[in-house]
Design a protein that fits this description.
Chain A: It comes from Phyllobacterium brassicacearum. Chain A: InterPro entries: AAA+_ATPase (IPR003593), ABC_transporter-like_ATP-bd (IPR003439), ABC_transporter-like_CS (IPR017871), ABC_transporter_ATP-bind (IPR050166), P-loop_NTPase (IPR027417). The complex is a heterodimer of chains A (about 260) and B (about 260). Chain A has about 260 residues and is α/β, with parallel strands linked by helices. Helices cover about 35% and strands about 25% of the residues of chain A. In chain A, α4 (about 125-140) crosses α5 (about 155-170) and α7 crosses α8 (about 250-260). The termini of chain A are close together. The chains are: A alpha/beta (about 260), B mainly alpha (about 260). Bound molecules: adenosine-5'-triphosphate and magnesium ion (MG).
Chain lengths: ~260, ~260
């Protein structure tokens, strides 16, 4: 590392530490305790210890195949850990309050947009109430006039917004996002990131975002977790005030730290 | 208005060629180019139509044939659909029955006619059995394929959102399998008429096929041609009905969106 980068670091760390007011940590949302997961004898995750507090926005980063989706599937209760345990906080007794959003929108092609959103209220609300809530949340993601359309006529970003509305309509306490913006173009991505942040700030759920995009991670998250060979290799707070500016020097500083860890530099 | 007219013009265009052919046929018959004992003129067929219509014979035969076709279809279709569902949803049921069914499928059902006549004589059961057997396989195979082809990611999504088994079936699996089920339905309708024609021609004492065979014995070639045309028309009618249902229930499918 050259002297220049060292001084650059110092000049950034100081102002950040001064201006950032760390939010009070709430109750525990969930906690992975020494969790391991194997598939047919092959260890995918091992020794995962991760406490996440209510309302925190955590980004999970790692190379392809390192076990990020597996981690989310454990969190959402879609798979069971091979060993160790996953404890949910008092506010999140059951998996019903955990929603997961995938890279693909997974909308029902045979249901209109509004009906697709109402899927998110299965077992929670029915009939007119469900309809009303569905339309409200559609408005929040900016699709108030598209409720009557078939998903096939929407653009990729719009479909992902419908999927987001569906995930949010049941007021989850934890929202797990598995590269939901991965398939979108760069401009739509940024728009969706802002939408996601705005909604997260408004609804105060715990967000766990898996992403390949380090810039996205530092732009959105309070905390970035890097997974490498099935273990947590880095657990980094991003103490930068919101609203954050894309590609600002502070964010670039954290981005560099994460990239260094990812490529062992 | 002009758009409707335009559409009408489009569909009228499709009828142009048959009309020309028909006129040519009539002309050739009148000019003596086609002997009446080979192929009667369209006008002769039309006359036979009126005569049989007035005597009530035609309606009665169409009624009997349609009834046979539909009963066979309902029986075979219901069994095929239920087995397709069962085998699509339960691995146990599939392992138990699918191999056997696929083996039986390789026997052309019309090859069973001699056996069926031995079993049932030329009774109604014989025709019902053949039609039901013919209809069974396309419905079974396509229902099974449709269910197996449902996107597993959508099924997982349904589970995550807490759908019960019934909800999952009604909201995800069945709609997902529907396009394939319709393919089976239309194919089965074709087989239904084909089987019935063969069965009625070989052994029957009523129905359209019987009418054609009687006419052949008395050398009433216009009635023979008429029966063939009516078979074609009924087949077309069934197919149009299926297409109509398909269009209504698959509105979401990009292939059926005409906006
Ligand atoms: N159901 C399964 N059965 C067997 N192996 C699995 C299963 N699910 C995941 N794996 C394996 O576990 C490893 C991690 O998979 P996972 O999907 O969690 O990776 P990922 O970090 O999400 O990768 P990507 O970034 O490409 O999505 C991979 O090697 C994968 O082959
Ligand atoms: Mg993944």
């Amino acid at each position: 590392m050259t002297a220049a980068t060292i001084t650059a670091r110092q000049s950034f760390t100081v102002p950040i530490a001064l201006t950032y007011t760390s939010r009070p940590k709430g109750e525990l949302a969930f906690s992975f305790r020494n969790v391991a997961k194997q598939f047919g004898g092959k260890a995918v995750l091992q020794g995962i210890n991760l406490d996440v507090h209510e309302g925190q926005f955590v980004a999970v980063i790692g190379k392809s195949g390192c076990g990020k989706s597996t981690l989310l599937r454990l969190l959402a209760g879609l798979d069971k850990p091979t060993s160790g345990e996953l404890v949910h906080g008092s506010g999140t007794h059951d998996h019903k309050r955990t929603r997961i959003m995938f890279q693909e929108p997974r909308l029902l092609p045979w249901a209109r947009v509004a009906r697709n959103v109402e899927v998110g209220l299965t077992g929670i609300e029915k009939g007119d109430v469900a309809r009303k809530k569905g339309l409200e949340i559609l408005a929040e993601v900016g699709l108030d006039d598209r409720g009557g359309e078939w998903p096939s006529v929407l653009s990729g970003g719009q479909r992902q917004r419908v999927a987001l509305a569906r995930a949010l309509v049941g007021h989850p306490s934890i929202l797990a996002l598995d590269e939901p913006l991965g398939a979108l173009d760069a401009l739509t991505r940024i728009e969706m990131q802002q939408l996601l942040e705005r909604i997260w700030l408004a609804k105060k759920f715990t967000a766990v975002l898996v992403t390949h995009d380090v810039t996205e991670a530092v732009a959105l998250a309070d905390r970035v977790v890097v997974i490498d060979s099935g273990r947590i290799a880095l657990d980094l707070d991003i103490p930068v005030e919101r609203p954050r500016r894309h590609a600002s020097p502070e964010l670039a500083f954290f981005e560099r730290q994460i990239l260094d860890r990812l490529y062992n530099r | 208005m002009s758009r409707a007219l335009h559409q009408f013009g489009r569909s009228a265009l499709g009828w142009l060629l048959p009309a020309v052919l028909l006129a040519g046929w009539e002309g050739a018959s009148r000019a003596g180019l086609i002997p009446a004992n080979v192929l009667p003129a369209p006008s002769a067929v039309g006359e036979a139509f009126w005569k049989l219509l007035w005597s009530g014979e035609l309606i009665e035969n169409i009624r009997i044939s349609t009834l046979r076709a539909l009963s066979g279809f309902v029986i075979g279709g219901a069994i095929g659909f239920s087995l397709g569902l069962a085998n699509g949803l339960s691995a146990l049921s599939r392992e138990l029955t699918d191999t056997t069914l696929q083996m039986i499928r390789n026997i052309p059902h019309l090859a069973l006619i001699p056996l069926v006549i031995l079993w049932f004589g030329i009774d109604e059961q014989a025709k019902l059995f053949l039609v039901a057997l013919g209809v069974f396989f396309p419905i079974y195979v396509n229902t099974l394929l449709g269910i197996q082809g449902v996107d597993p990611q959508l099924v997982e999504m349904g589970r995550i959102y807490g759908m019960s088994r019934t909800e999952l079936f009604l909201r995800v699996i069945l709609p997902g399998a529907l396009p394939s089920i319709f393919v089976g339905l239309r194919y089965a309708l074709g087989i239904m008429w084909l089987t019935l024609i063969v069965a009625e021609t070989i052994s029957a004492s009523s129905g359209l096929g019987y009418m054609a065979m009687q006419a052949r014995e008395f050398l009433l070639i216009d009635v023979v041609v008429l029966s063939i045309l009516i078979y074609a028309l009924l087949g077309k009618l069934a197919d149009s009905l299926a297409r109509f249902l398909e269009r209504i229930s698959l509105q979401w499918h990009p292939a059926f969106q005409t906006v």
